[in-house]
Amino acid sequence: MKFDKKNFLSEVDRILRADYATELGSATKKELYNALSKAAMALAYDDWNREKNNNKKRCGYFSAEFLMGRSIYSNLLNLGILEETCEALRSIGKDLNEFEEVEDAALGNGGLGRLAACYLESAASSALPLDGYGIRYRYGLFRQTFEDGFQHEEGDDWLKWGDPWSVRVDRDAVVVSFSDQKVLAVPYDMPVFGYRNGVVNTLRLWSSEPVEPFDFGAFNEMKGERTAEENFNATKITDVLYPNDNTMSGKILRLRQQYFLVSASLQDILAKDKAKGRRISDLPKYHCFQLNDTHPVIAIPELLRLLQEEGLSFEEAFDLAAKCFNFTNHTIMAEALEKWDALALSELLPDVYRQIVNCQERIQREGVDPDKFFIIRDNVIHMANLAIYVSAKVNGVAEIHTNILKKDTFKNWCELYPDKFVNITNGITPRRWLLLNNPQMAKEIDSLIGTEWHTDLKKLKSLKPHIGEMLSSFKRIKEENKKKLADYIKEHEGVEIPSHFIFDVQVKRLHEYKRQLLNALSILYFYNGIKDGSIEDFPPTAFIFGAKAAPGYYMAKAVIKFINEIANLVNSDEQVKPYLRVVFVQNYNVSYAEKIVCAADVSEQISMAGMEASGTGNMKFMLNGTVTLGTLDGANVEICEEAGRENNYIFGATVDEVSQVKKFYCPREILENTIGLKRAVESLVDGTLKDDSGMLQKLYESLLTGYEPDRYLVLYDFADYVRVKEELLRDYGSEAFDKKCLINMASAGKFSADRSVKDYAKHIWKIK
Ligand SMILES: *Cc1c(COP(=O)(O)O)cnc(C)c1O
Known about the structure:
- By secondary structure, the chain is an alpha/beta fold.
- It is built from 31 helices and 23 strands.
- Strands 1, 4, 7, 8, 9, 10, 11, 12, 16 and 17 form a ten-stranded mixed beta sheet that branches. A six-stranded parallel beta sheet has the order 20-19-18-21-22-23, sandwiched between helices.
- Helix 21 (about 555-570) crosses helix 28 (about 695-705).
- The chain is globular and about 80 Å long.
- The mean pLDDT is about 95.
- It binds pyridoxal-5'-phosphate.
- Pyridoxal-5'-phosphate binds near residues 509, 616 and 620.
- Pyridoxal-5'-phosphate binds next to helix 6, helix 22 and helix 23.
């Protein structure tokens, strides 16, 4: 594609005139953003159209979440016109950075949704024919603020700036039927640009609308109220993203969303094949579907239903479905594996339910033990079991996670179908997570080893012989990134962080298993030690947190309150201020992550071993040259394999130890016998911190009382955590420490999402 500054600006000007009755000189920021984005889209139209009409086998990536973040910079980068556009704007006195105000498309909760977004970008950049299918939520993940230290949620109006990177495709609308309503599914297509390779794939997001436009006839006949209500119900399906991460809520509206997504997508795919004259029995020749967690698993009975409507028998339909579907498992936590009440599902979707029953009966006909292999039991539908039974391949997302699936969570299924289970370790796109978010560092790397690493991240290992010469520029760029982040935090959170402090970062969804509480208790331990003189010459450290808690997750919200109160205590204490700062940033999202990841000195990945399936935040930090302070969990294990355990800071119980410890665990005993721990924990209830809500009391109780006190071994791992953390902080500043950072960066090649999607393509999708 050729970029001509003059032509491009005149195209932007033309769009401004046609769509906004304005022109380059007088357009507002928002008008300019929209016109410029549309002009860039037009440049790529031919490439997009070619991809839609070729005859390749394609993968449909079905996901209830796509955490896309901001599109403009990433799209301009991948189109190869980022610098040129920047210059073009400068020539008319504008600044591309002004679009930093544009809202993130936060159509996902956390890691799972961000993974889907990285895979779209990496597939396009690897010229793999993969399209995303998802939901165009009117409101994405809530916007978070803190008031008096408590989390508050507001609606996320992500369309405030318009949506110029989507195209509404009315001609592809389909009807989705529930027992009590029919709704129209209208697709909005987002182009997914490969990195400078002319490939454009599609993210198709479905929006629900009334089948009939507002019925004025009925309204005039005084039936207005009912009609208005029907309209209301239709749009409601895609109104809002459920803000739960790693938990299942069992709400019927959520089931409606899931069915809406997969029914619309499958109808669309089958109709297009029919229009192209393809035989229905050739479905697996042209398509495969990746089910991102259990959320879209209802696609399986829906495809069975649709194929039988086309005249196939159940067995014929099953045979095709079994070749098309694959399933990614993201968690071993029981509370996240979706289960639906059979009665509720059969009432909402009777024909789909029949197909689930058919699957259940089919597996029983195979003569297997019904106590081990079931889809429906005691009137509960187990979506993961349905997915495993029908899918060609089932994958976990890191070696350790896949091993747990095989040996434990799905042990029975793995014995029955040993070849189904495979591992595909997660990855991140190096374009967004190094080139874009850390451009100075990227340039420095380019100057040493060239640019091949942009699309072949393993090439970073040729940095290894250059580590010595790179030390000073690495430190300088990190320092600049830290200054920028500190300025941003000062402006948005009102907390001052001197940039010579160590930036110790834990950013991720708030979850008990992720153990932000462990981090918080260690800060109180350091605070107490500095105050009473038992800790001397503590290296100045800023502890930076970012996390949203699901609005209904009481304990997670309590942890936010706890950390905010610790921040108040520490940041206003003149004696410890030279050594400690604490800040919990508000509304952690992809754009905030981009700023934080390039400025971190320590990456906290401290989940209880066995709980974090992979993690991808850990990879972002590694790629930007940050050491991991972590447990042997998820991809941390593979990070250590790649970069060397000696170049990271590993602590805590292993998976095997966790299961041993849990047999006789007595947190009270640990509390009494661990130096400094009791005092830190008692802060929750002894009046050190302000809280009239009772939340901190409940946190305290969760550690020491109830059916399973300290479920995530916070107290058990505390001593080792604090020991290794202090060692890390005291290593900071040495040349040896900086070398560890750079060895991590140079060893991050495995964690490119390019590698992940190529593994999927080769072992699962069989696409080229
Ligand atoms: C990468 C990312 C995550 C996932 O972080 P983990 O540490 O792997 O849980 C969550 N949210 C955002 C905004 C991210 O960019």
